[in-house]
Amino acid sequence: MSAEPIPSTFRILPETDADREEVDALVMAAFGPGRFAKTAERIRETARMTAAFVAREDGRMIGSVRLWAITIDGLDALFLGPITVAKDVRSGGLGADLVGACIGEAQNRGVAGILLVGDPPYFQRFGFQPAPDVTLPGPADPRRVLWLPIASSAPSGLTVAA
After folding, report:
1. pLDDT of residue 32
2. Which residues pair with 13 in a beta bridge?
């Protein structure tokens, strides 16, 4: 007789000011100080955070994601990231749930879409597509720049402004 795994129960909630320190620690543990040199950080430095979510399990923060207001060809859009899941709970679907929360937020806001710099095989399952025409404020591997159109008025050429 084999033991059945105990299902994980976590809650995804809007990030609060009280969560900020824990989120920063979780992001630092996942990405280290090298994240500050990335182009995505240049976007976040000038953009306004519009929504953020955290995942908690038994009071412990195990995941987070943030959305930032950007403009793409004059249309309102969101920039997703960083998305972080604690190392010991990865591969359990929490990242997908956090992405889902972001997509729902974008739909509620009626923005043109969501832009991110990330792993194509992971994000394409949610409908993100390569965005080869994107212009970011710094270098980025064009294969990792992805766009998810939300509104029917989504732009074809992409120039990002925070």
Report:
1. 65
2. 54
**What H or E segment, with its residue span, contains residue 110?**
none
Q: Which string of DSSP letters, residue by residue, matches 115-161? A: EEE--HHHHGGGT-EE-TT-B-SS---GGGEEEEE-STT--SS-BEE
How many angstroms separate the CA atoms of 66 and 26, rounded? Answer: 13
> In 3D, which of 33, 23, 141, 134 has the Cα closest to residue 83?
23
Phi-psi sector, 67: left (phi>0), alpha (psi -120 to 50), beta: beta
Q: Are strands 60-72 and 113-117 parallel, antiparallel or unpaired?
A: unpaired
Show Cβ contacts of residue 160 under 8 Å, excluding neighbours closer than 6 positions: 43, 70, 71, 72, 79, 115, 134, 135, 136, 137
Give 34's pLDDT tier (boundaries 50, 70, 90). low
**149, pLDDT greater than 80:** yes
Neighbours of 146 (CB within 10 A): 23
Average pLDDT across the chain, whole number: 84
With cut-offs at 50, 70 and 90, classify the pLDDT of residue 91: confident
Instruction: Tally helices (H) and strands (E) across the chain.
Output: 4, 8
Q: Are the C-beta atoms of 31 and 43 separated by less than 8 Å?
A: no
